[in-house]
Amino acid sequence: MPSLISMAITYFKIGFFSFFAATSEVMIEQLTEKRRWLALADYAGLMSVVTPIPGPFHVNLVIASGFRIHGFAGSFVGVVSFVAPGFILAIAAAVLLFGTAAQAWLGANPGVSRGLIAAVAGLLLSAVYKLSRRILSGWGYLLVLIILATALIWRHVPFGILLGISGALYLLATIIVDSSRRPNS
Amino acid sequence: MTYLKLYLVILKVASLSFGGAYSIWTLIEHELTTATYGCEVTGAISAQNNNLAASAGAKIKFCPDDFKKVLGFSELLPGPQVNAIAMLAYRAYGITGMLVIVLALITPGLILVPTAVYLHGRATKSKHWRRFLAGATIGAIALLVLFFLKLGQNLVVPLDYRAAISAGVLVGAFWASARYRVNPLAIATVGALVGYVAL
Question: What is the ipTM of this complex?
Answer without folding.
Answer: 0.81
